[in-house]
Write a structure and sequence with these properties.
There is one protein chain. By secondary structure, this protein is of the alpha/beta class. The chain has two domains: about 130 residues, Nucleotidyltransferase, domain 5 (2-Layer Sandwich); about 180 residues, Nucleotidyltransferase, domain 5. The protein has ten helices and twelve strands. The strands form three sheets. The chain has a five-stranded mixed beta sheet. A hairpin with a 4-residue loop joins strand 2 and strand 3. Helix 3 crosses helix 10 and helix 6 packs across helix 8. The longest helix is centred in the last third of the chain and has 25 residues. About 50% of the residues are buried. Bound molecules: 2-acetamido-2-deoxy-6-O-phosphono-alpha-D-mannopyranose and zinc ion.
Length: about 325
């Protein structure tokens, strides 16, 4: 039988978990809303619950965990995290779960893990140099050069969302000002919509909010995307602005690394689809001459479903020790 690993993908909005076979098949999967409102112990209990549920379903070679934040891959400790995962700094799921399950546990940044899935099952099958950008609640990155994930000296490489692109710009979740994530992310879209409400009171964005009071953040960012597709003036403006900043970030990536392609993924990318891709390619073409030449090399991820779970499982399946 093929080796199987449990993959867990921890984000500020949801936790997804599933059993993944060596060939990338997701045998069984589930997702729950992250109980960030109840504090870090509640989130840890959710993860324990998922591990218990899945480890009773046949033999596993290990557990892979992708989480937001900077991760010390050796010890498994989350070294820093933005408030998207409150009090997450210092959490060590590797130590805890290895003790409780006797299985090997590997932890890495969520988008580094997603880049491993893209390498194994997506664009990486034909390209050895690419950068993955995940636009979700936040903005994460994963860099693959010569077929290897670039983790850097401490394992914190690829945090592209926190490149400063505007001096004295918008305040970012990480505490700095002017980071790319403050312009390109689900959170940024929602913040900007709220900020401009008085100027666009009749926007479809807010009609939806009055009917539906309890919505998760990502869904409301997705709603902004839906409104943009229907040419709602505010939503359209927000998406065009966001893709301009995204183009600046992508221009920087092409300039610095000259990868074969920049791959877009994450909930906002999925919600925006071809429209987002077209807008960012147009903006990139206007940003620089080289950007114009590379616009077609901005592509959508080839992994449609369970990217996070598959990526986390890759941490185990690609590891000889497991
Ligand atoms: C934030 C940061 C990154 C993460 C990225 C995407 C935290 C908790 N997160 O920039 O480490 O990769 O968000 O995360 O510090 P997502 O939840 O949007 O997928
Ligand atoms: Zn930042």
């Amino acid at each position: 039988m093929e080796r199987r690993a449990l993959g867990i993908d921890i984000g500020g909005t949801k936790i997804a978990a599933g059993i993944v076979s060596e060939s990338g098949m997701v045998v069984r999967a589930t997702r729950v809303s992250t109980r960030v409102d109840k504090g870090r112990d509640a989130v840890i209990s959710q993860i324990r619950g998922l591990v218990e549920k899945f480890s009773s379903r046949g033999p596993l070679v290990g557990i892979g965990i992708g989480t937001g934040g900077r991760v010390d891959v050796g010890t498994g400790e989350v070294v820093s995290a933005t408030p998207l995962l409150p009090s997450w700094k210092g959490v060590n799921l590797k130590r805890m779960l290895e003790r409780e399950t006797s299985l090997p546990v590997f932890v890495d940044n969520d988008v580094n893990a997603a880049a491993l899935a893209e390498r194994r099952f997506g664009w990486g099958r034909e390209r050895r140099n690419f950068v993955l950008l995940s636009i979700g609640t936040g903005l994460g990155g994963g860099i693959v050069i010569n077929g290897e994930l670039v983790r850097g000296k401490h394992g914190y490489g690829g945090e592209i969302g926190h490149l400063i692109i505007v001096a004295e710009g918008r305040r970012c979740n990480c505490g700095k000002r002017g980071c790319l994530e403050a312009y390109v992310s689900g959170r940024a879209l929602e913040q900007q919509a709220r900020r401009r409400r008085s100027r666009y009171p009749r926007s479809a964005i807010f009609r939806f909010q009055q009917r539906q009071t309890v919505r998760t953040r990502v869904i409301s960012a997705r709603h902004i995307l839906r409104c943009a597709r229907n040419r709602d003036p505010l939503a359209w403006r927000l998406i065009v602005e966001m893709t301009r900043y995204l183009a600046i970030g992508i221009d920087g990536i092409f300039t610095m690394l000259d990868p074969e392609c920049v791959v877009l993924t994450g909930g906002i990318t999925e919600g925006g689809g071809q429209l987002l891709l077209r807008l960012v390619r147009d903006s990139l073409s206007e940003t620089s001459e080289y950007g114009a030449r590379r616009a077609r090399d901005v592509v959508l991820s080839r992994i449609r479903r369970f990217a996070g779970i598959r990526g986390s499982a890759c941490l185990v399946l690609g590891n000889a020790e497991a």
